[in-house]
Specification:
The chain is about 35% helix and about 25% strand. With about 375 residues, it is an alpha+beta fold. The structure holds flavin-adenine dinucleotide.
């Protein structure tokens, strides 16, 4: 008997779905299995900021640029909710502005366009920005946003319609094994599927597939609190808005010589304790998404990051957000939390318990920006030696 599929992918978040996309482009016979009727993990709970500018200047910046080009190319064919509305980093002090100016020069050397804006230019673009917060900004016109509650669902619909992907939602996988000739995948109803190779892109699910591998890993779970205002159609806040605390947090800026001017003690200790930096993004209905916090736990203690949202943390975020923007209505329509996994020592967790089975997770807080480009690279790597 021949093997039914070239590749089975477990998990239809950003990592799994984009691996399926590039594998189908190569003409491989691919089966994508997702446990939920619709994906509902990190890939639908995030901001939808697709920002190569936030990456370190290494291969992850390259993956992010491949992602950017791919999102735009797919959007030109099929509406997956990508908007070309740019990213703006707002500095809150002359020192943060100096970091942005240095970074702009570095991007120029890399051939990645950006524009330093004065405070007045920032306020022209975003009238809601407070004059007493903004010292200027750095703008990336070419960067895009996605609507996280739409993007993955539309991408999966596109993969099925355009690329004839065999996608099976509501199909939890309970076992993945290698046999003498191929790999076998078993779902919760005992149905069996076989393939030459299997990718396990199961996000934060560490208990069902390969728990022994995860128990040995240095993965940790991160919980983030998010909130959204009521729709504010009278406010114009296009694109991704990143702020002074983001400049301090993102590795992209750590390599700037002027980064050492940013003294940690200038930041409220409560914001530092909860890993709070403020990002904004206006959703299609006009509501403004505000976040986020970062709470970490090693996998052994990951259940301690429970389902509760703490009002104390939301208030810390709102207080900082109100220093940055003037909004006509700060009432919060909804709050939620999201979780991502990350490795303490690597940018992504990859482990192959068998040469034909590959676990890929732990892409951290950059998966909307980089999962696509990483998948492009990884599919090429997995299949480059094949005839
Ligand atoms: C609040 C928040 C904000 C963020 N903001 C941004 C942002 O603005 N920009 C950015 O670049 N990144 C952002 N991120 C990070 C980004 O969302 C993640 O890196 C990315 O979504 C991870 O994708 P994934 O495919 O690895 O995981 P997931 O989205 O968790 O997908 C894994 C999938 O596997 C499925 N699965 C698990 N086990 C099984 C099984 N046994 N059988 C079948 N299916 C299974 C799950 O149901 C799930 O659908 C944010 C993350 C969070 C939480």
């Amino acid at each position: 008997m021949g093997t039914a599929y070239d590749l089975i992918i477990v998990g239809a978040g950003a990592l799994g779905a984009f691996h399926a996309y590039f594998a189908r482009q190569r003409g491989l016979k691919v089966l994508l299995l997702e446990k939920d009727a619709q994906p509902q993990e990190a890939t639908v709970r995030n901001f939808g900021q697709i920002i190569p500018s936030g990456m370190s200047e290494d291969e992850w910046f390259d993956y992010a640029r491949v992602s950017l080009a791919t999102y735009k190319a797919i959007q030109a064919e099929y509406d997956i909710s990508i908007r070309e509305n740019g990213s703006l980093y707002l500095a809150s002090s002359p020192a943060e502005m100096q970091v942005l100016e240095e970074k702009q020069a570095r991007y120029q050397a890399l051939g990645y366009a950006s524009q330093v804006l004065t405070a007045a230019q920032c306020r022209q673009r975003l009238p809601a920005v407070r004059a007493d917060y903004c010292a200027g900004g750095l703008f990336f016109e070419q960067e895009v946003t996605a609507e996280p509650d739409l993007m993955i669902h539309r991408l999966l619909a596109y993969l099925v319609a355009r690329w004839q992907l065999d996608f099976r939602p509501a199909t939890p996988v309970r076992e993945v094994t290698a046999t003498a000739t191929d790999c076998e995948v078993v779902d919760n109803l005992g149905r069996r599927y076989s393939a030459a190779q299997v990718l396990v892109c199961s996000g934060r699910d560490f208990k069902f597939l390969f728990p022994e591998v995860f128990a040995q890993s240095d993965l940790q779970l991160c919980k983030l609190q998010m909130m959204a205002t009521y729709p504010l159609p009278q406010v114009q806040l296009p694109g991704s808005i990143l702020t002074g605390l983001s400049i301090r947090r993102y590795y992209a800026f750590h390599s700037c010589l002027s980064f050492k001017l940013l003294r940690p003690e200038d930041v409220d200790p409560a914001l530092r304790e909860w890993g709070i930096h403020i990002l904004f993004k206006q959703a299609l209905d006009g509501s403004i998404i505000i976040g986020d916090t970062h709470e970490y736990a090693d996998l052994a203690a990951s259940d301690s990051l429970d389902f509760n949202n703490r009002d104390e943390l939301n208030q810390l975020m709102l207080t900082e957000a109100q220093r940055i923007l003037d909004l006509p209505d700060w009432r919060i329509q909804r709050t939620w939390n999201g979780y991502y996994t990350q490795s303490k020592s690597q940018e992504i967790f990859q482990y192959s318990p068998d040469p034909r089975i590959h676990i890929i997770t732990g892409i951290g807080g950059k998966g909307m920006t980089t999962a696509c480009g990483f998948a492009h690279h990884n599919v090429s790597r997995l299949y480059s030696s094949e005839g």
